[in-house]
Specification:
alpha/beta, Rossmann fold, 38% helix, globular, oxidoreductase activity, Short-chain dehydrogenase/reductase SDR
Length: 250
């Protein structure tokens, strides 16, 4: 694999599993020193660290609850202390759809929805605000969204879709703000994946009918889009929304 990111420092939020772990492995494989966050499973996080280090690359994990935005500045300080700077930020940490309940469902768990808003929207903003204070010029900000950020298409996803749409617009605003520093800010709309954020693949199969490519995506396929935006050939791509969801919007 090309070492196109040699000398770069990357931070991936929510990097202990699924798409986050695939992204950690990809960026490390391209030569970056990678830090990532996890919220609960230290064992899963350590397994990713061990896997990266076995390949001769560097990785370090930090436990962070992204619902608490006050933790973001300390996280960035830890990354800088570990690696001396920051070049690439991948905002991946998120909570999935809460049981697919409609807004008029009397049994909807509003506390769970509030936490989802805190992690998926405010958590992303908190990390970006902390990171841009140290992010090197010509750095990269990549925010992971969903096809639901631009097209709902199904009932029961209003709150989740709102968080994704919100962070898309925020990231594109960041692209405008940081363009003079050569920093790019882009969005990847990820598609349906069989990960532990989607614990019931059978229940999701009807959604595949909305796709042009009617199958689940593999986390490595979406990570490849992230790797492109983080790499040296994407220097003139900013304020973009890159679809990696099997043609949900086609």
């Amino acid at each position: 694999m090309s070492k196109a990111l040699a000398g770069k420092v990357a931070l991936v939020t929510g990097g202990s599993r699924g798409l986050g772990a695939s992204t950690v492995r990809l960026l490390a494989g391209q030569g970056a020193d990678v830090a990532f966050t996890y919220v609960r499973s230290a064992a899963k996080a350590q397994a990713v660290v061990d896997e990266v280090q076995a390949l001769g690359a560097k990785a370090v994990a930090f436990q962070v609850d992204h619902a608490d935005t006050s933790q973001a500045p300390a996280l960035i300080d830890q990354v800088v202390a570990a690696y001396g700077g920051l070049d690439i930020l991948v905002n991946n940490a998120a909570i999935g759809v809460e049981q697919g309940r409609t807004v008029d469902d009397p049994d909807v768990d509003t506390a769970a929805l509030d936490r989802m808003h805190a992690v998926n929207y405010l958590g992303v903003i908190g990390v970006i605000r902390a990171a841009v204070k140290v992010l090197r010029d010509n750095g990269r900000i990549i925010t992971i969204s969903s096809g639901l950020g631009s097209r709902t298409g199904v009932p029961g996803v209003a709150d989740y879709a709102a968080t994704k749409s919100g962070i898309e617009r925020y990231t594109l605003g960041v692209a405008r703000d940081l363009g003079p520093r050569g920093i790019t800010a882009n969005v990847v709309e990820a598609g349906l994946m069989e990960t532990d954020m989607s614990p019931d693949p059978e229940a999701l199969k009807p959604l595949l009918l909305n796709l042009s490519i009617q199958r689940f995506g593999h986390p490595d396929e979406i990570a490849a889009a992230i790797g492109f935006l983080a790499g040296p050939t994407a220097t003139y791509v900013t304020g973009a929304v890159l679809d990696a969801h099997g043609g949900y919007n086609a």
